[in-house]
Amino acid sequence: MIKQLKSWIPFLSKGPSLYEMDVIYKKAISQLPISEQKEYCKRLLSRTAFEMKRTKCKYEIQHLKELSRAAKSEISNLET
């Protein structure tokens, strides 16, 4: 039932933010200029894509997908 609700209500399906998932981003990168923050997120996206191709562990793949989603969301927030 909850899974069905998440698909219908977009704000319920959001995962953790990049601040919650990445301590380095929270403590250091978020203090830098916006252009530097965007570059960090882009590099994070390329690293997570590379790692997703290499790993076979379902749990690690799920974590990398959440991290990738959080980085994309952060880039979107920084561009607005």
Description:
Helix content is 74%, strand content 0%. The chain has one domain. It is elongated. The protein starts with a helix and ends with a helix. The protein has 5 helices and no strands. By secondary structure, the chain is an all-alpha fold. Helix 4 runs antiparallel to helix 5. 14% of the residues are buried.
What structural keywords apply?
80 residues, mainly alpha, 0% strand
Q: Secondary-structure blueprint of this entry?
A:
Elements: H1 2-8, H2 18-21, H3 23-27, H4 34-54, H5 58-79
Helix pairs in contact: 4-5
Largest sheet: none
Shape: elongated
Strand content: under 5%
By DSSP, the count of extended strands is 0
Uncertain segments are none
Termini separation (Å)?
Answer: 34 Å
The helix-and-strand class reads mainly alpha
Overall pLDDT level? 86
Radius of gyration: 14 Å
The level of helicity is: over 70%
Strand and helix order: HHHHH
Short description:
With 80 residues, the chain is an all-alpha fold.
